[in-house]
Every structure is written in C-alpha cells, then in structure tokens.
Amino acid sequence: MEPVHIIGAGLAGSEAAWQITRRGVPVVLHEMRPAVETFAHKSGDFAEMVCSNSFRSDDDVMNAVGQLHWEMRAAGGLIMEMAGRHRLPAGGALAVDREAFSAAVTQMLRAEPLVTIAPGEITQLPDTGNWIVATGPLTSDALAHAIRGVTGTEALAFFDAIAPIVHAETIDMSVAWEQSRYDKGETLAEQKAYINCPMTKDEYEGFIDALLAAEKTEFHEGETAGYFDGCLPIEVMAERGRETLRHGPMKPVGLTNAHKPQDKPYAVVQLRRDNALGTLYNIVGFQTKMKYGAQTQVFRMIPGLQNASFARLGGIHRNSFLNSPTLLDDRMRLRPRPNLRFAGQVTGVEGYVESAAMGLLAGRMAAAQALRRDLPPPPFTTAMGALVNHITGGAEAKTFQPMNVNFGLFPPLPEMRSGRRGRKDRYPAYTQRAKDDFSAWLATQ
Ligand SMILES: Cc1cc2nc3c(=O)[nH]c(=O)nc-3n(C[C@H](O)[C@H](O)[C@H](O)COP(=O)(O)OP(=O)(O)OC[C@H]3O[C@@H](n4cnc5c(N)ncnc54)[C@H](O)[C@@H]3O)c2cc1C
C-alpha cells in the first residue's frame, strides 16, 4: 500500500502518524530537526512543547479545550495518552513533564513498524502521493517559499497579529451600539456591521496611561526577522504619541452614539464580527504584546467591555499559517493541490492541543483516502468539528487569524439562557451535545 507522507513530527504530525498506523496504513515521517533547527525547539525529539508545559484545562464539562481533550482520548489519541502518562500535578490543568512526554511520543513512533522515519528538511511540495504538511508555526523558509509559490504570497502569513476576541453576549449594549463608520454599506446588516464603544477624554487618557504601564512580552531572539510596520502593537502606537491611537484605530469620526446622540465621543473602540455565527467579535486594530493578565484589565476599562469575556487574547508572534478559509476544503486538502493536506498550527489553529487535534483529524482523513474511503469532518457541534469548521469556512477570510478552541465556535443552543449567568447550564449542555455527536461520528468509522 502507498504510504502517507507527513512533513513535520511536531504535535500535529506525530498524532497524524499514530492515527494513520492504527488504520493499518504505512507512514513516512519527515522531520528536519536536529539537522535544521528553529529558534524555539531545543531537541531532536518529536512533539516538543516549545514554551509552556501545559495542555490547559482538563475539565471536559465546563471548558472547550477540556472537551477537545475528551474527544482526542475517545479517538485513541497518542498525544493525550502520553500526556496522561507524564502528567504533573497542576490543579485542573493537564501539565506534563515535557522532556519525558516528547521522549515517549518519539519512542512510540520509532517502535511502530508501520512508521519509517525520514530525517531531513523537505524543501518542495510534491505533485503526487498522499501528503500531510504539519510543519507548524516555524515552517522552514525553503518550504514556506514553496507553499507561497502555490498559494500566492498573501495566503501564507509569517506573523500573526491577533486582536483580542470577545464573546458578543458579554458586550454591554446599553453602552455600545451597532454602526459602521459613516453608515457605509448597501444593506442594514452592513451599516450595522461594527459594535462601537465610546470614550470620554478622561477615559481615553486613563486608558493610554494603563496601556503604557502594562507589562509586555518580548520577542524571542531571532523571531523578528520579517516583522513589519503594518501590524504595530497598540502600546507601541501609544508610545509614539498619546494622540496616535485617536487618529488610528480609535478615531471617533463618522459615528454617532446611539444612546447619547448629543455627546461627541473623544475616542471610539470598534469591534468587528469574527465568525458567521455572530457569536465572536474582534477589537479592530488592537494587536498587542501585553501580557495576558494585563490585557484583561486594560481592555475591561473600555466602556461597554467592563464585563467582557475573551474568547482569545491578543498577541503578535512569528507564525506561519495559511489563509485556510479560502485555501482548504472541509477534508483539509489544499484546493489547488488536493494531494496535500495541512494539519496543525499552519492551518490557523492556535495551541498545542488544537494543533494535535487537527493532526488527528488530518491523519484519519488521509488514512481513509489511502483505503479508498471518505471521512467527513465531525459535526460542528463537537469541539474538533467546531474548530475545523471555523478554519475551513466559518471564519472571516479577510481578517483570518489563528484561533483557540472556545465555546463561541459552537452553534448556539437557542433554548438556553445567554450571557455570563447562563454559562453554568449552557456549557454542560454544549459539552454533552459534543460528546454524543462525537461518539456517533466515531461509530461510523
Ligand atoms: C515560540 C512559540 C511558543 C509557543 N508557545 C505555546 C504554548 O506555550 N502553548 C501552546 O499551547 N502553544 C504554543 N505555541 C503554539 C503552537 O501550539 C505550538 O507551536 C505547537 O507546537 C504547534 O504544533 P505543530 O505540530 O503545528 O507544529 P510543531 O510542533 O512546531 O511541529 C512542526 C514540525 O515540523 C518540522 N519542520 C518544519 N519545517 C520542516 C520542513 N521543511 N521539513 C521537515 N520538517 C519540518 C519542525 O522541526 C517541527 O518538528 C507556541 C508557538 C511558538 C512558535
């Protein structure tokens, strides 16, 4: 039988390899480390955790990432199995002994007779065969160049510039209002495409002080090559002058406060819809290197966001990722070259768990193809399905930035109470529905 080739033995590639061999299909696993290094990896082992040693919350009732753990375990995932074996005490989080964990993943794959390890960097995209590209946020330059040759230069980003994303139901609409600047747009929906949060002069000055004082993270050494001026962090804009933001992303022009039409806001923060469901909004132009704790404090100073709950916080990192909503089909194949599947962080998901989950799915889909079957994605009521649906279609392609799994990606349950208070009933209902639907999806295979 023709093997499936996987480029990259990170979190995604390792999980994909495992899933494929469980279905009796051979794998060739291409890995460039340790011969070719990245600025973040430290070893030649597979599935190296480059920064924190945590797979985040393991709560599969009240937390979306915990639900994703549950689904990966139900699907016999290697990453979750090895994480469980090398677990460290960390409250409700799944933290691991990182070295023991990646040594164990490496050993499992090296010991698997259906896996052939092929050391070395892949620099071209193959025209034929069944391939999975799982080269991660630090995809080597030569391969990134080859990918851009097929997708176009705009379609593979080298940095993410993530503006914070807010759960729509937690925005205080008695303070904020819907309006596009100058009411632009043909339809009413377009004229109301943005949510606006007004600031007085005092609120603006207080906000700038907090931005300047907030703790920031630094770029890693070697990370900034290719970083450009077009996605400056808001705190850097504020450092360039206290008025810079008021003339940039916070300019108050073309907007009338629907609650107080006589009051001219001194500055306005705009939020734009981030998904087709309308459950998530991003804060326009607010990419930042502030530390996560500081972000929550500073952004809750914005009138209307005082109780905001964040689906993800902002960041700027070296990160190669595709514009997947335009490039990948729902089987995770590259539309212009369907012999290539993509998996992991390079598809525009964010995080160890999400990357490994996309590896699991791509692996099962590639194995199905090798066995002349077709595997549809899990329903988007599941954590895995919600995530793959987001990257391959649900997300806004124009503003696409990497995404963590979160309940905002799940289709709402109309009968459940919305808002923060409804969570204690809503979240268990989401995760129960996800478990039922994921089990049914597994049972079809
Ligand atoms: C600096 C940094 C810190 C991060 N911190 C965290 C964190 O704390 N928590 C979190 O959840 N997520 C974090 N992430 C995000 C992300 O979850 C991880 O990067 C994760 O490892 C992604 O999994 P992956 O399998 O897609 O990529 P990787 O795990 O990076 O695996 C990709 C593999 O492909 C190999 N490769 C690349 N190009 C080629 C090529 N041309 N030929 C052959 N092999 C190749 C690489 O050597 C690597 O082994 C971080 C990312 C970065 C860059």
Overall description:
FAD binds at residues 8-13. It comes from Paracoccus tibetensis. Helix 2 packs parallel to helix 11 (352-370). The protein contains 13 helices and 17 strands. With 445 residues, it is an alpha+beta fold. It has a 6-stranded mixed beta sheet, covered by helices on one side. A 6-stranded antiparallel beta sheet has the order 10-11-12-13-9-14. Strands 3-5-4 form a 3-stranded antiparallel beta sheet. The protein has helices at 11-22, 64-74, 78-85, 98-110, 141-151, 188-191, 201-213, 234-239, 292-299, 324-327, 352-370, 383-394, 423-443, and strands at residues 4-7, 27-31, 54-57, 87-88, 93-96, 115-119, 130-133, 156-162, 165-167, 177-178, 194-199, 267-273, 280-283, 310-312, 315-322, 333-334, 337-342. It is globular, with a radius of gyration of 22 Å. Helix content is 32%, strand content 17%. The structure holds flavin-adenine dinucleotide (FAD). The site of flavin-adenine dinucleotide has 36 residues, from helix 1, strand 2, strand 15 and helix 11. Residues 7-13, 30-33, 38, 40-41, 50-52, 121-122, 134-140, 143, 220, 317-318, 344-346, 351-352, 355 line the site of flavin-adenine dinucleotide (FAD).
